């Protein structure tokens, strides 16, 4: 069977893959989306990392282009500014802008993904779950997908592949085997761990919901973003290994008692909000943070990468998803403007690569400045997670 014309096979039905599916269907493309995980609408979302995300105007602009903004915003919580928890003083809201037109939004990754998947399916995209890209024959234009549940495989013809399969992209690895993509990954010496602030006994939020909470402590910090089920996701950013300054690090906090003692000393006000600290600490992994640099994002007209698969970045500017969403709009636009896929992919890469590199740099600058200007709390507050 030959793949039909104007057909694209998207690898990864995460945030960027699902949004791109909607945009392309609305432009008349025939779209198949292959996702390694099961359908989150059936078995719950097993996203694995960064439970919620800051959605900024860049991302909303892309959602509007797909008529997805209203549906997403029903799950979003406004963050008017940051609330900084230092010492014993009551935190006050530092607004991002003059009024509620200059805000960012917290959205649960699972809710966001499900909304986008529903819209993609309603727009006519075919969704294939439990189908992880395994290998690609770019000469015969056939891709092999593996069902992680029983290891069975199936081979599928394609016209072109779009890699929206995240930082560990299998499509990127397959492309790299055919043509050197000039890939380099820089891992940070900080990692992260997530914890949860549950709702109060009466079902309300335990702390101010319309804010991004920050507990800055120099070389490390906690942040908390609200979720619409009245919880907060707390993220601790901390070095993996203790440095010469003897500061705390994940490698010293292997057991829960040591971690609890660290929180009692450095984050007592946050710890008081996390009744299941021991369970969360033991159960949630330490995540890695890295910047991915690629010299080439596409393989002539046969494959192209976007989102984290092309330019994963550290989260200190809160823009990875927002940037991935912008990629989707840009790629859809270039596919509209160019009948030839190789030309469209090249134009997309030429437009987006410098923008992504700039955002990667800003995210890394924020991290370095956070790390190095440890004594200047005011400065940190201005710079850290300045998301809008
Ligand atoms: P992903 O979201 O990673 O989606 C990839 C999809 O592909 C997944 O569904 C995966 O299951 C699937 N997949 C993987 N391999 C295969 C395969 N072989 N075959 C088929 N499918 C496959 N960004 C923001 O904008 N704001 C924030 O506040 C923010 N906070 C963050 C906090 C942390 C701690 C981290 C780590 C990241 C944060 N980001 C944030 C970045 C954001 O998470 C990413 O930029 C975004 O998820 C990228 O979307 P994506 O669709 O490209 O990749």
Automatic annotation (TrEMBL):
The protein's required cofactor(s) are namely: FAD
Question: For this protein, what is any one GO molecular function term?
Answer: FAD binding
- The source's domain of life comes to Bacteria
Record-annotated membrane-spanning stretches: 6-24
- Give the pathway: Cofactor biosynthesis; NAD(+) biosynthesis; quinolinate from L-kynurenine: step 1/3
Q: Which GO terms describe its biological process?
A: anthranilate metabolic process; kynurenine metabolic process; L-tryptophan catabolic process; NAD+ biosynthetic process; quinolinate biosynthetic process
> What reaction gets catalysed by this protein?
L-kynurenine + NADPH + O2 + H(+) = 3-hydroxy-L-kynurenine + NADP(+) + H2O
Alphabetized UniProt keyword annotations: FAD, Flavoprotein, Membrane, Monooxygenase, NADP, Oxidoreductase, Pyridine nucleotide biosynthesis, Transmembrane, Transmembrane helix
Q: What is its EC number?
A: 1.14.13.9
Residues forming the FAD-binding domain are 9-175, 289-358
Q: Give the coiled coil ranges.
A: none
Q: What does this protein do?
A: Catalyzes the hydroxylation of L-kynurenine (L-Kyn) to form 3-hydroxy-L-kynurenine (L-3OHKyn). Required for synthesis of quinolinic acid.
What is stated as this protein's family in its record? Belongs to the aromatic-ring hydroxylase family. KMO subfamily.
Can you say what this protein is called? Kynurenine 3-monooxygenase
Please name the source species: Luteimonas chenhongjianii
Q: Which residues of the full protein are shown?
A: 1 to 388 of 459
């Amino acid at each position: 069977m030959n793949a039909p014309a104007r057909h694209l096979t998207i690898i990864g039905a995460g945030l960027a893959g699902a949004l791109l599916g909607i945009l392309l269907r609305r432009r008349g493309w025939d779209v198949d989306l292959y996702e390694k995980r099961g359908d989150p609408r059936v078995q719950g979302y097993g996203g694995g990392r960064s439970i919620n995300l800051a959605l900024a105007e860049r991302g909303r602009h892309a959602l509007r282009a797909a008529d997805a903004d209203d549906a997403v915003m029903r799950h979003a919580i406004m963050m008017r500014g940051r609330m900084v928890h230092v010492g014993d003083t009551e935190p006050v809201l530092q607004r991002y802008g003059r009024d509620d037109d200059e805000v960012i939004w917290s959205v649960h990754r699972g809710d966001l993904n499900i909304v986008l998947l529903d819209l993609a399916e309603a727009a006519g995209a075919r969704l294939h779950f439990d189908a992880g890209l395994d290998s690609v024959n770019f000469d015969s234009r056939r891709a092999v997908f593996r069902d992680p549940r029983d290891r069975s495989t199936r081979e599928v013809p394609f016209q072109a592949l779009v890699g929206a399969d995240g930082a560990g992209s299998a499509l990127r690895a397959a492309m790299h085997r055919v043509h050197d993509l000039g890939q380099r990954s820089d891992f940070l010496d900080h990692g992260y761990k997530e914890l949860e602030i549950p709702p109060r006994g009466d079902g309300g939020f335990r702390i101010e919901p319309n804010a991004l909470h920050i507990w800055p402590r120099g070389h490390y910090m906690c942040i908390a973003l609200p979720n619409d089920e009245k919880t907060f996701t707390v993220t601790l950013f901390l070095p993996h290994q203790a440095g010469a300054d003897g500061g705390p690090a994940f490698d010293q906090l292997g057991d829960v008692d040591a971690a609890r003692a660290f929180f009692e000393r450095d984050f007592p006000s946050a710890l008081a909000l996390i009744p299941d600290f021991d369970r969360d600490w033991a159960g949630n992994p330490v995540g890695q943070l890295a910047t991915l640099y690629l010299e080439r994002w596409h393989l002539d007209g046969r494959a192209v990468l976007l989102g984290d698969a092309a330019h994963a970045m550290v989260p200190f500017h809160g823009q990875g998803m927002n940037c991935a969403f912008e990629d989707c709009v840009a790629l859809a636009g270039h596919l509209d403007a160019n009948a030839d896929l190789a030309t469209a992919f090249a134009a997309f890469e030429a437009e987006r690569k410098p923008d992504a590199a700039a955002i990667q740099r800003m995210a890394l600058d924020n991290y370095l400045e956070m790390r190095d200007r440890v004594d200047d709390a005011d400065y940190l507050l201005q710079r850290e997670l300045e998301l809008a």
